[in-house]
Amino acid sequence: MPHLKVTPFDTSLIEQKIGKDALLRFRATALGGNEEILGVEYKNEEFLLQLKPDDKAYLLKYDKVTRPLKVNLLKEALDYVSKRLDLEILSSNIAMHHAKPPLSSEYFKKIEDFESIVYPKEKISVEVGFGSGRHLLYQAKMHPDILFIGIEIHTPSAQQVLKQIELQGLHNIWVVNYDARLFLEMLPSNACEQIFVHFPVPWDKKPHRRVISKGFLDESMRVLRKGGRLELRTDSDNYFWYALETFFSAPETEVEIRKNERLEVTSKYEARWRKQEKDIYDIYVKCMKEDEPRAHQINFDFRGTVYTQGLEERLIGDAIVFEDYFIHFERIYKIREEGLLVRCAFGSFDRPEHKYILIDRKGCRYFVSCPVKTTVNLKAHQKIVEYLNYV
Fold first, then answer.
1. 123 and 223 fall within a common domain
2. What domain range includes position 358?
3. Please, which residues bridge with residue 326 across strands?
4. Residues 6 or more apart from 31 whose CB is under 8 A from it?
5. How many CA atoms lie less than 13 Å away from 110 in the CB half-sphere?
6. 102 confidence band (pLDDT: 50, 70, 90)
7. pLDDT at 98
8. Is the predicted pLDDT of residue 157 greater than 60, yes or no?
9. 30 within 8 A of 55, measured Cβ to Cβ
10. In this structure, is residue 24 part of a structural domain?
11. Residue 126: count of CB within 10 angstroms of its CB
């Protein structure tokens, strides 16, 4: 990714030479270290550049948390800074490339898109963990009137299915590279026909990582229309009995069980298991009621939070763990005596948010963008506000 390795230079020139043209928004230095962060705005986009000094060379590179979608913006900004500071470049990786970046298809959707998205079909179905995508692609081909949203946390699988969507000329699939347990919160109530969960990882040694849980079931029943169903297909005896217990613990549940049913399309793994005469279990959970529409009342306001002297000392420490979320102030950068830039991780244990918080004597905000609007992120945010305001 974009970077410059340059001979050591006088860093006091940074504010003198690039602060005047408004490219530089702030400059911060890591507590307990000499690494610097430059907050810049270039072509109406905000992001961070990292400067890592060394005796022999300085490394100027992008920050992955705030990286803009257009990588060429980073390259242009690095080139601009190097010329303004008249840096002697030892090596670089800022050559311009105009190839299509990964996951750039119109059928790829970020979870943030679902905060205000228009669905092109009246009917929606979701597949969780689609893997090779055989079942997802088959369903979309057979039901062109339904929008299929495929959720896959494994990026190479998501990229492969995006290629197949274009090769097969399909127009009714969206691919989301995210954790399904958090994604369902972004869907409206009573919107889905079906939710497919085929051959999820059993996680026998780490059951807390399983997709199926009481929380996942509750969210599934909320987003399914009345009469819609959640479909679990598994080859794991342990997962089957665990899921059955989870489903039957819910009130007003209608559950159907089938064994060794053959579907129209199977994955290569299922074909292998059938040759081994391994049992395949299906559990269908029918949604029995309509839910009230959910209005996302999620606000990541910092409610007048400002920088106070000594705040940085109170934030240093290990991760703070709660029942279903955590917060961790990972790195703190000082902006003169005026404020802090805090890099933090928080939210879900399996899909945490990584954000910077910019706090000075005038106010506080996430830099560059707010977290995804999920309830677990809101809980973590509220706890972060408590710590920032604690005296």
1. yes
2. 311-389
3. 321, 347
4. 312, 316, 332, 333, 334
5. 10
6. low
7. 61
8. yes
9. no
10. yes
11. 28
Which CB contacts under 8 angstroms, 24+ apart, belong to 265-270?
Answer: 265/134, 265/135, 265/138, 266/134, 267/131, 267/132, 267/134, 267/135, 267/198, 267/199, 268/132, 269/199, 270/199, 270/235
pLDDT tens digits, residue range 255-296?
999 999 988 887 777 878 888 888 999 999 999 999 888 766
**Which of 198, 202, 132 is closest to 160 using CA atoms?**
132
Same domain for 70 and 39? yes
Whole-number pLDDT of residue 99:
56
Say whether both 266 and 137 belong to one domain: yes
SS3 225: strand
Residue 187: φ, ψ to 5°:
-90, 145
Answer whether residue 103 is part of any domain.
no
For residue 101, pLDDT beyond 60: no
Residue 264: CB atoms within 10 Å: 8
pLDDT at residue 95 in the model: 81
Flag whether pLDDT at 304 surpasses 80.
yes
Specify whether the CB–CB gap between 142 and 172 falls below 8 A.
Answer: no
Show the CA angle centred on residue 372, arms to residues 298 and 64, nearest 5°.
Answer: 145
Judged on CB neighbours under 10 Å (0-12, 13-18, 19+), 274 is middle
- Are residues 323 and 359 both part of a single domain? yes
Q: Which residues contact 173 (CB under 8 A, 6 or more apart)?
A: 107, 136, 137, 140, 147, 148, 149, 150, 161, 165
pLDDT attached to residue 107 = 94
Calpha distance 33→118 (Å, rounded): 47
Q: State the pLDDT confidence band at 57, using cuts at 50, 70 and 90.
A: very high
Q: Is the domain of 254 the same as that of 150?
A: yes
The residue out of 270, 286, 302 marking a domain boundary is 286
Mean pLDDT of 160-168: 94
Q: List the one residue out of 310, 312, 330 whose CA is nearest residue 320.
A: 330
Q: Which helix (H) or strand (E) holds 165?
A: helix 155-167
- CB of 372 within 8 A of CB of 182? yes
